[in-house]
Amino acid sequence: MLRLVDDEPELRDILSRVLETGDHYANELRLGVTEVHADERIVDCRVSPLSGGDAALLVEMTDVTRRSRISRENALLIQHGAGRQMIRQLAHEIKNPLGGIRGAAQLLAKQLESGELTEYTDVIISETDRLAGLVDTLLGPGGPPNKQPANIHELLEYVVRIIEPEDQKQVTFSRDYDPGLPLIDLDRDQIIQALLNLVRNATAALEGQGTITLKTRAVTNFTIGDRRHSVIASIEIEDDGPGIPNDLQDSVFYPLVTSRPEGTGLGLPAAQELLSRHGGLIEFESRPGRTVFFVRIPLQQSGGG
């Protein structure tokens, strides 16, 4: 039976443990990629000891990958909604007094005769402008998307051209594109920004050495939230870095959550927001040696975003 799942180590341990103890086992189990199945699967696994006859164990496995994915998707959408509301409230609270601080510093600078003292007002103005820029990032681009037919592969290559000069180390880009993907109605600037955030994160996770794989596929009968789509474009951004820490995996799409000292924790929430304007969603899988962010975009979108 283990040959059916490529000798999955965890299942082998479960079978051995039930044989030794006689205890029943019931839990979800993640099955890795095999020659038959190109994707990971989540199964509801039950193992029971049998007495009498030639058989020693009864093993029942039910594929719950889709149910688990829909549940995780809904959690991501709830997380995104809560994060967006929090981020906008925070940004508005910060932005209102910034204009007053900047104006007061400019008036004060005009009253000061000493060049040494105006250096301090210059710092106030400079830091106020920096904070205003951060707030604009938090609020994100406003208005509905300006959608035009776009080639997703061209956008990915544009992002790579931006990223490659930034990284002078040993990061390799690999491509696995589906040439059959049609043009998609997108806001070019918004999708480029979302992809740029994701690819930059992958580059940072590699710390200068590793491979980023860009993959595209058409996926049929896919559900995003409560809408079922006959076909979507799936863009995968995969890196072979250390993975997202387990304690952050349930909260990475909340604003200000990051594992990097230099990170702002705004890249993923902003990318999720930009995809939501296209009826899409970003999901991820992560373990040491393989982290994949899946960008899901419906091919047929309702007008106006």
| Unreliable spans | none
Mean pLDDT: 79
Strands of the widest sheet, in order across it, are 5-7-8-10-9
**What proportion of the residues form beta strands (DSSP E)?**
25-35%
Shape: elongated
**Main sheet characteristics:** 5 strands, mixed
Number of helical segments with 4 or more residues? 6
Counting helices, strands and paired strands, the structural category is: alpha+beta
Number of domains: 3
> How far do the termini sit from each other?
48 Å
- Provide the CATH architecture of the largest domain: 2-Layer Sandwich
CATH topology category name of the largest domain: Heat Shock Protein 90
DSSP summary, beta strand count: 10
The amount of helix comes to 40-55%
For this structure, the quaternary state is single chain
What is the fourth-level CATH superfamily of the largest domain? Histidine kinase-like ATPase, C-terminal domain
Give me the strand/helix succession.
HEEEHHEHEEHEEHEE
